[in-house]
């Protein structure tokens, strides 16, 4: 009997990252801006760092990374012939298995680069789709990612196969002369149709659950933000939950709901969902549209930002671009920016950030927090409680000593603004209730 074991662990793929810079010619370099100061444009190293984060999320070993200036994109290969040869040499020197191009390639460009470099080539869209495919856990998440992947692959049926000659007509093909590529496109279209049908069914179930939640007088609070901004860490701190929170891009993909206890005892429902990223593939935006639309229906949206990142302003613009694309008439009065990771800033950067928060002209002032240390969390919870009750109705209530159940309801489902206990033991309250909570209160007291 052999004592040797077969190692079935796949070998780590060695990757080279190439970030094409197709922007206008660069101005003379200037000193790097301090933390807390808005960045006018993304730095080359920041783009490379983000691309490296995406690669690490797929367990790839990064052996080289470089920025490639592209003054005039080549329709066939994106890069000029000299740069293509230069990258061939680099790949051979570091013994790379694949090349990641940090932009969206056309199918022709991807095929030609794979020929020239004799290695697998992955563009930014393909990389993000692969990460989403690995991270999806729920049935809806898996269906959404598979739909996005098929939409992406449908446009890439330009492979250099040897069997693209005309096929003989059979009972299952479209007729005389249908090519293999046409057959594959039709098969993908059929799969897409099937997936959309399954997704519609899942979304109908989600809609029923959402309707049921609306009947319960709990306000909904949604977390949105750039990937790795600290949404899940903040979510865990607020709810004492144990959602996966890692210093990793797209650690969270599927939406998670938990109960949030607000000051005064009132409860709310808070949701943590997928993070955004610059140049988010349109296939994913389309596939996750229903999920994102549900987030935008929340009573309050918390836009979590990583203020330790010099690209925070650019990242915030990316998030708002996706949100307004899905909901052009987004009500900004329901949105609060949460400036996270202030524990990573030095004293000078904090002072700059505090001044920015004070001078911010947004309808709701930003709130500075650290989801790790808890700094600013009480202020955040207080502001959430005030904001979700803005649209409520104030009522005066007098309760007898035996009305304990009604008193508990008012404390948990409303915001008690004032309380006075008289000599007879009766309780006099001024309470603000949402429309749903007010309706429930009237039913409980027989006033409906």
TrEMBL record:
Record's GO cellular component terms: cytoplasm
Cofactors named for this entry: Mg(2+)
Cellular compartments annotated: Cytoplasm
Binding residues for Mg(2+): 232, 252
MF terms in GO: GTP binding; GTPase activity; metal ion binding; ribosome binding
Residue ranges of domain Hflx-type G in the record: 219-392
Binding site for GTP: 225-232, 250-254, 272-275, 340-343
Pfam families the record matches: GTP-bdg_M, GTP-bdg_N, HflX_C, MMR_HSR1
Entry-linked InterPro entries: G_HFLX_dom, GTP-bd, GTP-bd_M, GTPase_HflX, GTPase_HflX_N, GTPase_HflX_N_sf, HflX_C, P-loop_NTPase
Renumbered residue ranges of the record's region Disordered: 20-44
Keyword vocabulary terms for this entry: Cytoplasm, GTP-binding, Magnesium, Metal-binding, Nucleotide-binding
Binding partners and assembly: Monomer. Associates with the 50S ribosomal subunit.
Function statement: GTPase that associates with the 50S ribosomal subunit and may have a role during protein synthesis or ribosome biogenesis.
Annotated family: Belongs to the TRAFAC class OBG-HflX-like GTPase superfamily. HflX GTPase family.
Name by which UniProt lists this protein: GTPase HflX
Protein source organism: Asticcacaulis excentricus
Lineage: Bacteria, Pseudomonadati, Pseudomonadota, Alphaproteobacteria, Caulobacterales
């Amino acid at each position: 009997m052999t004592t040797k074991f077969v190692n079935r662990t796949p070998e780590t793929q060695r990757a080279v990252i190439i970030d094409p810079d197709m922007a206008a010619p660069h101005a003379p370099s200037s000193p790097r801006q301090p933390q807390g100061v808005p960045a006018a444009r993304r730095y080359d190293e920041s783009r490379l760092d983000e691309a490296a984060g995406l690669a690490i999320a797929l367990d790839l070993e990064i052996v080289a990374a470089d920025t490639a200036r592209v003054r005039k994109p080549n329709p066939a290969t994106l890069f000029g012939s000299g740069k293509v040869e230069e990258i061939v040499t680099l790949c051979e020197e570091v013994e790379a298995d694949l090349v990641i191009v940090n932009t969206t390639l056309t199918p022709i460009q991807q095929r030609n680069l794979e020929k020239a470099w004799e290695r697998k080539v992955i563009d930014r869209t393909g990389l993000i789709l692969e990460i989403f495919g690995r991270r999806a856990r729920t049935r809806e998440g898996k269906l959404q990612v598979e739909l996005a992947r098929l939409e992406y692959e449908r446009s890439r049926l330009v492979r250099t196969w040897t069997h693209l000659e005309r096929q003989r007509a059979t009972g299952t093909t479209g007729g005389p002369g249908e090519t293999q590529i046409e057959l594959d496109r039709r098969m993908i279209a059929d799969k897409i149709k099937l997936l959309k049908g399954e997704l519609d069914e899942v979304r109908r179930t989600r809609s029923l659950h959402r309707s049921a939640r609306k009947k319960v007088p709990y306000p909904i609070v949604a977390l949105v933000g750039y990937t790795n901004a600290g949404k899940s860490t903040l979510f865990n701190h607020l709810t004492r939950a144990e959602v996966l929170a890692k210093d990793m891009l797209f650690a969270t993909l599927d939406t998670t709901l938990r109960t949030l206890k607000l000051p005064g005892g009132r409860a709310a429902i808070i949701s943590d969902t997928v993070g955004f990223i610059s140049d988010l593939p349109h296939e994913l935006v389309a596939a996750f549209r229903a999920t994102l639309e549900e987030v935008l229906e929340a009573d309050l949206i918390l836009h979590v930002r990583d203020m330790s990142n010099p690209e925070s302003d650019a990242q915030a613009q990316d998030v708002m671009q996706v949100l307004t694309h899905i909901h052009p008439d987004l009500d900004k009065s329901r949105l609060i920016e949460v400036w996270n990771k202030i524990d990573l800033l030095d004293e000078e950067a904090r002072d700059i950030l505090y001044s920015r928060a004070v001078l911010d002209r947004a309808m709701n002032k930003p709130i500075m927090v650290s989801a790790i240390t808890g700094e600013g969390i009480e202020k955040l919870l207080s502001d959430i409680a005030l904001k979700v009750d803005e649209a409520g109705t104030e009522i005066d209530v007098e309760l007898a000593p035996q009305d304990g159940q009604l008193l508990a309801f008012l404390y948990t489902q409303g915001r008690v603004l004032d309380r006075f206990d008289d000599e007879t033991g009766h309780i006099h309250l001024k309470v603000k209730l949402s429309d749903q909570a007010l309706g429930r209160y009237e039913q409980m007291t027989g006033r409906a």
